[in-house]
Each structure stands twice: as structure tokens, then as C-alpha cells.
Specification:
It contains eleven helices and 13 strands. With 298 residues, it is of the alpha/beta class. The strands form three sheets. Strands 5-4-1-6-11-8-12-10-9 form a nine-stranded mixed sheet. Belongs to the UDPGP type 2 family. This is UTP--glucose-1-phosphate uridylyltransferase.
Length: 298
Amino acid sequence: MTRIRKAVIPAAGLGTRFLPATKAMPKEMLPVVDKPAIQYVVEEAVGAGLTDVLMITGRNKSALENHFDRVTELEATLVLKGDVDRLEKVMHSSNLADLHYVRQGDPLGLGHAVLRSKMHVGREPFAVLLGDDLIDARDPLLSRMIDESERTGGSVVALLEVAPEMAHLYGIATVEATGTDDLVRITGLVEKPATGTAASNYAVIGRYVLQPEVFDVLENTKPGKGNEIQLTDALQTMAADPAGGGVYGLVFRGRRYDTGDRLDYIKAIVQLACEREDLGREFRPWLAGFVADSLVSR
């Protein structure tokens, strides 16, 4: 089996939940402490050994390309100042990976965004990383998914056990055991099932390792939920194909930071700041005092 080396990052969304901040700035560039969210995602891909990264972008997303490009004037200024620490941080984002960009064009859903990567990916297995889910670097989810995909020859999606009352917010998987505690075989997938109808509480989160056959399926997948081409629907077709390699789910129990809406975004910043060696020591006691004072004032 071909060693997985390519990552696809869909980044064409309008970010309407964060307006007006995203009126002129891509939501992927919103800072999480001191790095844009998209950089965490690229770093995760690189940490899993994926050095060829394709971003699926849209209009007004040039800031993404600029962030990962060289800024020679800034670098020269930092050199003159002798500011080695900041220079290293600036250079780090420019040297992370071999980055490519293609526009999605029509906003026809995640499945359509993934399909736009077909020419770049070719007939190789590849990873898809969604920017709303940040996975802690200490919990190597993606590398484990790659290992399982290579071992089984199938596609692998990341699953998270959610409260049953939250199941309608996710794609939900029907699963069967494989003999490995955190690896299941997926037998069915439904995108955002109606409240109370979910077959399980295994929710699909934004990490996928896909076989190239997904492109063939997506080309024949009709618009589904929200009148969009759903990646979930394509994976359901692949899971039901007895001649295919199957679709597996890796149940993730590590640290995940959701930046998909305003409240979860704020929580993610607080959690990561608390864990930072350079910030946490001062930030944690301040935060504890602030919370205590706010409770008293209420």
C-alpha cells in the first residue's frame, strides 16, 4: 500500500458564526493564543509525516497563503533587531510543509471540497483535516489513523463519544467491534440524524484518512443534508460495499479543542493558554481569581 503523504484541508467556509470578525479575515486565521487556528492543523499534519498539504480555499482567503509564505521585510527587521525568538516563529510557519492551494468555487459542501482535491491527490490514500477541530499534539490521533488505514487497507474516520442529546449535531456512525478496543468497523453513517433517532453516540469529528476510491463515489453522490454533497454519504456508500476495503472508526479519547463556534473558541483559547509553559503559570491563578470574584459578584 502507498505510504500516505498528502493532506487536504478544506478552508473555503465563510465563517458566519464569527461575524463581524470574519468580514475581512478568514475564520481559519483567527488566533488561538498566538497562532492562527489553521497553523495548528498544518502542524498536526506535518507531525504525522504528511509533507504535501493542499488547502481548499475560496474568495477572500489570500491571508492563508500569505501566512505560510515568506515575509522578507519582516524577517530582515527582526534580524536587525536581533529578535531571534520571533524570527524563528515567523520562519517556522513558512517552512512547515509543501503547501498548495485550489479554490472550491461553488460552496456545495464538504464532499464537494474533498472532490476538488482529486487532481492533486491522484490515486493515493490521503488525509482530510477540518480546521474547526484542534487535536492536542500530545495525542497523536492522525498518525494512529494512518497506521490503521495502512494495516486494514480501508478508510478511517475519527469518532468521539458524545452525549445522546448532542448526536443530532454530528454525523453518527453505526459500528461493530473489531477486537481492538478503540477501533470499530463502521456499517452505517447518517449526517445529523433527527433528535432521538441516532443509532449510536459515536460522532464523526474532523479527521479522515481516505482511500482514493472516495473520489469515484463522490462524483456520483447526490446532494443530501442541506442540499450539499456530504462526505458522510460517500463514506456510507463505501462502508456498504462488500468489495471495498471498508470504513473504520478510531474512537478518540484524547484532548480536542473545538473552535467551531464563539463559546467553544473561547474555551479552546483558555484551555491552551492554561497549558502553555510560558503563560500558564501566571494565567491559571489569575483565571481562578477572576472566576471566584465573578461568582461572588453575582
